[in-house]
Specification:
Elements (H helix, E strand, L loop, with lengths): L1 E6 L22 E2 L12 E12 L2 E5 L2 H9 L4 H9 L9 E6 L26 H6 L1 H14 L5 E6 L30 H17 L6 E3 L18 H18 L6 E8 L9 H7 L2 H6 L2 E5 L6 H9 L4 E6 L2 E2 L6 H17 L4 E6 L1 E3 L6 H6 L6 E2 L2 E3 L5 E3 L1 H10 L7 E8 L4 E7 L5 E7 L5 E7 L2 E7 L3 E7 L1
Parallel strand pairs: 3-20, 4-5, 4-12, 5-6, 6-7, 7-8, 8-9, 9-10, 13-15
Antiparallel strand pairs: 1-22, 2-21, 3-17, 11-14, 15-16, 17-18, 18-19, 19-22, 20-21
Helix pairs in contact: 2-4, 5-6, 6-7, 10-12
Length: 476
């Protein structure tokens, strides 16, 4: 049986994403390609299910402290909100979370986990802020996943900064606002920082939420004075991971928690084309300690991940942050296509996950304490959903773009080889689920609808893609 679902906008800009929940959308057809388009120049998608590529560990976003604050304090129907996000039957079936360890740039107010300073042995370590502010929503999300999916959520975690007294600039910010001193992890604090991260991982494990993976710091090549951040060089990260964090996790019985290096863009000014990962992997102990690398999509090309995969085929690749906002396409259709094609590119370049940023923000891009304090303005970021002042919810283009993957491609699926011919303006990625369902996600960037001939293991079927749309096709 063939099914297809599309998300797009009509000429008036009205979102017609209800196609997610129903078959037979009037603007979508599956069947024999019309004779008028069945010629050599017609777009053709060839899928070879025998050529299995990387496993899929999940699609998702982050329950930041800002997201959880909105869920606790403003969302009027909390249960419906969770189902819309984490149920594949009632919503988009998010299967992965990336949780900040301590405050990120999106918090309602600052908080900390260490009550005394300096406290190298972390005797004052106290995760009450996490347990009160964030974990209730994480647990509700995981309960929903367990009830409606075949797998608990895969949860990874990333710190934005070490506690201020562990850093060379004595600030939770990446740079002092006036002296501009950059904050690195002090060498004498490597063991304390490993203990700090391990304590967070132990907390989640004790709550029945064992961490799938950890990164060492978010965006180590972007320390700045606006929100918590911390600089790290490949040599620093290699030493910390191999000689401190990995041994401490193993000693704590958390040997199943992967360590992912980098956690930054495909390319940065200091580390173009995966140079940070290459330099770190040059340390054999760090190479052995890392399960792979984590990537963000804000700079460079997704092809960088393929080059890293080719050089280190035994190391995994995960995309841990991507998002939309006013700094990118704002209108629904351009935002849908921009993010949808970006996720397609991630999958075709060996990513085992695609994780966006905030699940929920308000109508101003908040809560955003650090933006208001340091920039004197709200953030320009956009969540998967927007929580209005009255507690109602608007599903954004990001929600639907992610949903074309997360709703139909569960944990344990595999990306499979596919190729497009005569298909300028069309992008596609294909997957096999654990139950044998073939899933293809196609983006049509053309201003008119087009037919694409899908050839699967020698058999073909035509699929009509609405203009400027994302379409998910299932073959059961």
């Amino acid at each position: 049986m063939i099914q297809a679902f599309s998300t797009y906008a009509n000429a008036q800009g009205t979102t017609l994403a209800a196609a997610f929940a129903q078959l037979g959308n009037a603007c979508l057809r599956v069947g024999r390609t019309p004779e008028s388009t069945a010629h050599a120049s017609a777009p053709t998608l060839s899928i070879d299910t025998t050529r299995v590529r990387q496993p899929i560990d999940g699609f998702g976003a982050s329950i930041t402290e800002a997201t959880s604050w909105l869920w606790h304090n403003r969302v009027t129907d909390k249960e419906r909100c969770i189902r819309d996000l984490f149920s594949p039957r009632d919503g988009i079936g998010i299967s992965m979370l990336r949780q900040p360890i301590g405050p990120s740039d999106h918090v309602s107010a600052p908080y900390r986990f260490v009550r005394r300073f300096p406290d190298r042995k972390l005797n004052s370590l106290d995760f009450t802020p996490e347990m009160e502010r964030v974990l209730p929503m994480v647990e509700a999300a995981n309960d929903c996943a367990l009830a409606t999916q075949s797998h608990a959520l895969n949860i990874m975690a990333s710190p934005w900064s070490a506690p201020w007294w562990m850093k060379t600039n004595l600030s939770v910010l990446g740079k002092r606002r006036y002296t501009r001193i950059t904050g690195h992890l002090r060498r004498g604090m490597y063991a304390a920082y490993a203990r700090y991260i391990t304590g967070f991982a132990r907390l989640y494990a004790q709550r029945g939420l064992p961490l799938f993976a950890l990164t060492v710091t978010n965006e180590p090549d972007y320390p700045q004075s606006r929100w918590p951040s911390m600089a790290m060089t490949p040599r620093e990260q290699a030493e910390f991971v191999a000689r401190h964090l990995r041994p401490m996790l193993d000693h704590a019985g958390l040997d199943g928690t992967r360590i992912l290096c980098w956690d930054h863009n495909y390319s940065t000014d200091h580390y173009p084309d995966g140079a940070f990962v290459r330099d770190m992997y040059a340390d054999s102990a760090a190479l052995a300690a890392c399960a792979g690398s984590a990537w963000h999509y804000y700079g460079g090309s997704a092809r960088t991940m393929s080059r890293i995969h080719d050089a280190f085929p035994n190391k995994g690749i995960w995309v841990t942050e991507a998002s939309g906002g006013d700094w990118g396409p704002r209108n629904f259709t351009p935002a849908l296509l921009s993010l949808g094609t970006a996720v397609i590119d991630m999958m075709n370049n060996w990513a085992r996950s695609a994780v966006l940023w905030n699940i929920a923000l308000d109508e101003h891009g908040g809560p955003d304490y650090y933006y208001l304090r340091n920039d004197r303005r709200h953030s320009e970021n956009r969540g998967l959903i927007t929580v209005r002042d009255d507690g109602s919810i608007r599903r954004n283009a990001d929600y639907y773009a992610l949903g074309h993957f997360s709703k139909y491609v569960p944990i344990g699926s595999h990306c499979v080889e596919c190729a497009l011919d005569h298909a300028q303006g069309v992008r596609a990625a294909a997957f096999l689920t654990p139950t044998g369902t073939l899933v293809a996600v196609l983006a049509n960037e053309h201003a008119e609808s087009i037919w694409v001939q899908c050839e699967v293991d020698g058999s073909g079927i035509g699929v009509r893609l609405p203009s400027r749309s994302l379409t998910t096709v299932l073959r059961r």
